Amino acid sequence: MSSHLFIGKLVESHATRAVVETAGDRIAISIALIPDAEIGDEVLVQHGFGLRRMSEALESGSGLGGEMDLPPGNLGLDL
Amino acid sequence: MAPVSSTFVNPLLVQRLSQVGKKLRRPLRLLEVAGTRAMRATRLSVNGSMPSQITVLSCLSCPAAVSDSAEISQLIQLTTKPGVVICAYPDVLCIPDHQGKTLLSAQRDGALVQPVESALQVIDLAASNPSMQYVFAAFGFESSTPHTAVAVLEAHVRQLTNFSVFLAHRLVVPALLTILSRSDAKIDGILCNDALPIILGINSFRRVVSRYSIPCVVGGYENPEVLETFVTLAELAAKRDARLVNLFPKAITDWGNRRAQNLIHAVFTNSDATWRGLGVIPHSGQTLRRQFRNFDARIRFNVQPVQIDDCSACKCGDVLTARKRPGECALFASPCSPESPAGPCMASSDGACNVWYRLATDASRPSNLQI
After folding, report:
1. pLDDT at B359 over 50
2. DSSP string, B223-275
């Protein structure tokens, strides 16, 4: 599958659905993975999903990104 | 075939790479994990400055390609069920099974196959067309798995009975550890310019670094960032400096996207999975948790196992696991090409063979470019 990543600017938001602008195009995405995204944020998008608020990663340093009280999912990492 | 356009090359990075080459007294083998498309631009960007001692290998270049060809056969089997629409990312449609059949060829024969760009697109289709059954062919590594998790949860909440998933997700780290554990691997460093560390976090590679004492560099996906990732890794590997380096802190963090990881954990559980070229790797795949098993297409449609006796000359399994470079497959370029692929690595635009073929045939490539 295309692994095309791009950065878009969030211009609309309705619950977990949103619209980003990139290169003059408006693209519908889901922000279910980045629910704290706000209008004006730059978000990294792949396969119709926002993966990361670009500003959040820098602000939080280690990028804990909320929900720290939950253990990380076991993805074979054994961390 | 559209040529790869040349990009601006930071001369300082090329100079740094050249310095590595001048001081290097031994061969280096660097392994690119996923992100093969990004490496294509890097290979051209160095304009023939790649030190001859450095060999670049790719592994796990395309998540659809690493899956066992039996899964493609099973999906094609599903297309024969009345009222079933198979929804898949465009590259999955081109992946051949052991008989050379693809979802695309099935579509040409009248099967209901729908290309999609997002898992949620399948949800919308199912909600709009309740009389049809929509099956999402869920391929992908951990950067894609959260999307399927969200789709399953949404289907669960909306009580959609005409949506299901054909799960073929894989976990990269177990496969990467398996590849590195081979005695002939001899890898001096790994890099990743993919969405994977954005979801998993850079700490997901810490186990690899500590177990094998090799550097790992993760970085951005645009051409200049990819080149910097490569050059940084070459420098560290040359010094045997087993460090974990993040060159894309704006998007890659220590622990990644925890919400995405928790969604994966809520919907899926780890299971054994079969990998092309690697066989069965424990805890390297995903299955739906019990409360979501009603969305499992294999169960819903009683998909039968497919026995594969694959004796073809195609070396995709070796290419995907960094045993061979694409040019070392006897079929590469003749007769295997993007127009007539013998295996998934050529069929998929993310596949190493596809990328290498386009490098080799790019009129703008330097004459001494190492393929």
Report:
1. yes
2. HHHHHHHHHHHHHHHHTT---EEES-TTT--SS--HHHHHHHHHHEEEEEEEE
Class of domain B11-61+173-255+316-361 (CATH, top level): alpha beta
Does domain A5-60 sit in CATH 3.40.50.300?
no
Q: Do A67 and B194 touch (CB under 8 A)?
A: no
Q: Please count the other Cβ atoms lying within 10 Å of the Cβ belonging to residue B158.
A: 12
ipTM: 0.84
Q: What is the pLDDT of residue B369?
A: 56
Burial of B207 (0-12, 13-18, 19+ CB in 10 A): middle
pLDDT value at residue B5: 39
Q: Using CB atoms within 10 A of its CB, is residue A11 exposed (0-12), middle (13-18) or buried (19+)?
A: middle
pLDDT of the residue at A76: 38
The pLDDT value given to residue A66: 34
Nearest-Cα residue of chain A relative to residue B95 = A1
Q: How confident is the model at residue B124 (pLDDT cuts 50, 70, 90)?
A: very high
Task: Mark yes or no for CB contact B37/A44 under 8 Å.
Answer: no
The size of the A-B interface in CB pairs under 8 A is 150
Q: Which CATH architecture has domain B64-171+257-300?
A: 3-Layer(aba) Sandwich (3.40)
Query: Which residue ranges make up each domain of chain B?
Result: 11-61+173-255+316-361, 64-171+257-300
Distances in whole angstroms, Cα of residue B131 to Cα of each of A29, B123, B163, B290:
26, 14, 11, 26
Give me the pLDDT at residue A77, please: 36
Q: Is the pLDDT of residue B41 over 60?
A: no
Of A51, A62, A70, the CB nearest to B198: A51
Contact B264 A75 (CB under 8 A): yes
The predicted structure's pLDDT at residue B79: 95
Mutation to test the A interface, candidates B255, B270, B280, B349, most A Cβ within 10 Å: B255
pLDDT of residue B311: 55
Q: How confident is the model at residue B202 (pLDDT cuts 50, 70, 90)?
A: very high
Distance (Å, rounded) from C-alpha B324 to C-alpha B370?
A: 15
Domain spans in chain A, listed from the N-terminal domain onward: 5-60
